[in-house]
Structure formats: structure tokens, C-alpha cells
């Protein structure tokens, strides 16, 4: 059973509804309260169960339908969501739900954050699902698990409200999956660090207010000389490029970042000096779990709209869904998704119990992302020529899927990690 503390989450959702004529219906919020009372949970800090998780999913989907759906096509054309969207979702209590209550979050388990990623992905908001995942599923946990009380107090409350957008800067023009080859460096200068270098393909790079930057602090030692820094994106010497144009995930703003003698206070160091690579490795399972959440939910969304289409579309005097080829293809797709859904949920539970290994996370990312690309391809094929047009969402499911086997560790790297667990290096 999945448990989390609900008080601030529900309070914020209900408060947001009062402030804005928006998506939430009173019965949904009251339903959570009534359900708890029936169980004797008179204190809203008591743990809640899967029924209440579903109620929260329903409310979140209503939020996304209200605040995102009417505008998403335009945002796709703009290749960026408006900055205000982060504030809107923060006011609704939908950002960083598993941040501790003392820092403004709801103190949930990671299940709730992953559920938000799933809902966005299912609704074909793949670009923003990636952006949301970086902010709520990567940067917030980095701070929560490795930050000092002062660092948490400085950044987490702003991330919860949407005042601060987070980004992770590891990849460089000459160092992608090979994190140990990064050249960005930070040199100690008295009580400060001086940061120089550049990063590429940084999700949330344009909107970012806080960037966790991986930099060399002990040259020549590779991974053992890497540190992480909390960098204010408005600091002198910090520069953002224009958006990088991509073939998909257009609403995920992606940028080059440049650091020219950026002076950082000593307390900008996240964790210990030269221990950054260990933190990165420690947090990779959760990152890959979030990517798998996107893969599975997006595949489910693609299948559902394909089923609707083939039930209505006619060819040669009959419904496309009546052809044996269509039926068999979709049967394979449904089976593929179900297998990956089961593995994903198993890994989610293992992570919640601090028992998810790096090998399992690698297997999950490999299997789910490769599956997502297969599913998107097969589903688009069922649409024929219409699937190749931007008029039908299946085309967005298709192009948004292609990056999944690349970022967060390529499929080739995932295979190598799994192979090492079997055969050694």
C-alpha cells in the first residue's frame, strides 16, 4: 500500500480552487476528507491509500486539462511553455509534492511525483513532462537528500511554489554519457568558488533559476574529482543561449549554458567536495524511474487514442480495427505495455523502500524506453498518412518518444551496465 501525508497537499489544492475559478470540483476534495473520516483518519496528517491517490490523480488531470490542454498546441509552436505555468502549478500544489512539509511541500512519497509525470505523459504533454520531471523528480530530491538545512530552506520553498525553476547541468559538448570527461571546472578562491565552462542540452535551461552544475574541482582525478554546485542562474557571468530547436518535446525548453568566472559562495557546494559523482550515481535510479514513468504512461496514451481511431476509421468498406493485422498489432502493443507497467510498478515500490539497484533502474529504462518507441511507431502506422500530420496527437507521441532512449543514459550505456552486473567489466 502506498502512503503519504496529505494535509498540505489537499489544503493547497482547496485553497487554489477558492482563489481561482478553476478545475477542481468541491466533491472531489471533500471525497478525500470523507474517505479519511470513514477510516477514522480525522487528522489530515494521517497516511492515505490508493483510493485517495486516484482522487489526487483525478484532480491533477483536471488541473492539466484546465491550465495546459487549451494552450498546448500554441506552446508547441512557440517551442516553450510560459514561465507563469510554473507559478500556476505551484499555487495548485502540483510541484515537488514529496518535498518535506517544513519546506513547503506535502511530504508525500515519490509515488505522487511519479504520478504527476504519468498524467502529463499520458495526456501527450511529453515535453513538459520532461521539464516537470527535472524540476520535481530530480532537482528537488537532490536538495532534499544531499542539501544542508540552509540550502533546503533557501531553494525548496521556492521550487514548491514555482518561484524557482530547477535544472541539472551535466552534459557538455564533449561529454554526454561519459560524465567523467566533463571539463567545466570550479577553482577555490578564498571563501568562494570560481566556475568556468559550458553545458549543452540542458532541460529547463531557459526558465531555470537554480541549476545544479557538475564541475571538476580536482583535475586529473576524473569522477573522484567532480563536485556539484547550486548555481543561481541570475549570477554575474552566467549566460543562457537561445533555445535549442529539437525534432520533438518542443515545450521542454533546452539550452546551452555558459559560465565565465561565475563566483559562488562556499555554501553553494552540494554535498562534499569531490563527491559529486557519487551523488550523481546515487540519484540516477530515481531519474531513470521518472523516465520510465513517461515511457509507460505515454505508451498507454498512444494506445488509447489509436484504439479510438481504428474503431471509427474505415478502409475497404470496414473499420480499420476489424482487420486482423490491426487487431494483432494492437494486441502486441497492449501486451508490451502491460509487461513494462508491471516492471515499472515493481521498481517504484523498491525505490520507495530504498531497495532499487542501479542495475534494475538501468533495465527498467532500457526496456521501457525501447518499448515506447516501438509502441509509438506501431500506433502511428495505424493512422496511415494522417499519423504523419501534426493535426493528430499520435505524431507528437512519436517524435517526443525518440529522445527517451538517449537522455538519462543511452540504451547502449544501459545495456553495458546490465552486462556488467552479469559478466563484470
Structural overview:
This protein is of the alpha+beta class and 425 residues long. The chain is 52% helix and 13% strand. It is built from 13 helices and 10 strands. The strands form 3 sheets. A 4-stranded mixed sheet has the order 1-4-5-8, with helices on one face. It has a 4-stranded antiparallel sheet with strand order 2-3-7-6, covered by helices on one side. A hairpin with a 2-residue loop joins β2 (185-189) and β3. The two termini are 38 Å apart. Residues 1-7 and 21-48 have low confidence and may be disordered.
Keywords:
425 residues, alpha+beta, four-stranded mixed beta sheet, four-stranded antiparallel beta sheet, 13 helices, 52% helix, disordered N terminus
Explain the layout of strands and helices.
Elements: H1 7-19, H2 26-38, H3 50-67, H4 72-78, H5 84-91, H6 110-122, H7 126-146, H8 149-161, E1 166-169, E2 185-189, E3 192-203, E4 210-216, E5 226-232, E6 238-240, E7 254-265, E8 269-270, H9 276-312, E9 314-315, E10 318-319, H10 324-352, H11 358-382, H12 393-401, H13 411-423
Helix pairs in contact: 2-3, 3-6, 6-7, 6-9, 7-8, 7-9, 9-10, 9-11, 9-12, 10-11, 11-12, 11-13
Amino acid at each position: 500500500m502506498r502512503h503519504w501525508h496529505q494535509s498540505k497537499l489537499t489544503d493547497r489544492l482547496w485553497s487554489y480552487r477558492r482563489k481561482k475559478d478553476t478545475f477542481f470540483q468541491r466533491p472531489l476534495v471533500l471525497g478525500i476528507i470523507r474517505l479519511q473520516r470513514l477510516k477514522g483518519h480525522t487528522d489530515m496528517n494521517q497516511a492515505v491509500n490508493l483510493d485517495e491517490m486516484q482522487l489526487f490523480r483525478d484532480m491533477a488531470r483536471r488541473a492539466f486539462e484546465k491550465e495546459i490542454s487549451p494552450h498546448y498546441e500554441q506552446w508547441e509552436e512557440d517551442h516553450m511553455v510560459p514561465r507563469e505555468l510554473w507559478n500556476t502549478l505551484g499555487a495548485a500544489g502540483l510541484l515537488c509534492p514529496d518535498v518535506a512539509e517544513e519546506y513547503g511541500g506535502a511530504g508525500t512519497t515519490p509515488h505522487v511525483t511519479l504520478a504527476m509525470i504519468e498524467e502529463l505523459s499520458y495526456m501527450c504533454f511529453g515535453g513538459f513532462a520532461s521539464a516537470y520531471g527535472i524540476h520535481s523528480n530530480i532537482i528537488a530530491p537532490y536538495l532534499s537528500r544531499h542539501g544542508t538545512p540552509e540550502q533546503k530552506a533557501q531553494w525548496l520553498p521556492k521550487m514548491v511554489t514555482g518561484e524557482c525553476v530547477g535544472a541539472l547541468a551535466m552534459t557538455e559538448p564533449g561529454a554526454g554519457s561519459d560524465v567523467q570527461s566533463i571539463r567545466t571546472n570550479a577553482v577555490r578562491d578564498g571563501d568562494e568558488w570560481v566556475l568556468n565552462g559550458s553545458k549543452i542540452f540542458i532541460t529547463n535551461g531557459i526558465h531555470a533559476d537554480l541549476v545544479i552544475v557538475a564541475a571538476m574541482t580536482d583535475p586529473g582525478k576524473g569522477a573522484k574529482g567532480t563536485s556539484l554546485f547550486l548555481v543561481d542562474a541570475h549570477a554575474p557571468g552566467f549566460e543562457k543561449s537561445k533555445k535549442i530547436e529539437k525534432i520533438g518535446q518542443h515545450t521542454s525548453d533546452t539550452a546551452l549554458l555558459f559560465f565565465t568566472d561565475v563566483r559562488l559562495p562556499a555554501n553553494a557546494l552540494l554535498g562534499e567536495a569531490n563527491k559529486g559523482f557519487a551523488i550523481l550515481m546515487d540519484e540516477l535510479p530515481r531519474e531513470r524511474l521518472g523516465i520510465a514513468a513517461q515511457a509507460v504512461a505515454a505508451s498507454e496514451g498512444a494506445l488509447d487514442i489509436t484504439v479510438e481511431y481504428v474503431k471509427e476509421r474505415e478502409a475497404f468498406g470496414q473499420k480499420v480495427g476489424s482487420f486482423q493485422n490491426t487487431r494483432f498489432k494492437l494486441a502486441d502493443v497492449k501486451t508490451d505495455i502491460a509487461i513494462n507497467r508491471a516492471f515499472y510498478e515493481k521498481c517504484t515500490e523498491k525505490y520507495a523502500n530504498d531497495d532499487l539497484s542501479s542495475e534494475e533502474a538501468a533495465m527498467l529504462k532500457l526496456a521501457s524506453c525501447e518499448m515506447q518507441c516501438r509502441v509509438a511507431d506501431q500506433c502511428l502506422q495505424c493512422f496511415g498518412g494522417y499519423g504523419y500530420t501534426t493535426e493528430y496527437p499520435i505524431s507528437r507521441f512519436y517524435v517526443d518518444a525518440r529522445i527517451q532512449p538517449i537522455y538519462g543514459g543511452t540504451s547502449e550505456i544501459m545495456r553495458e551496465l546490465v552486462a556488467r552486473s552479469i559478466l563484470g567489466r
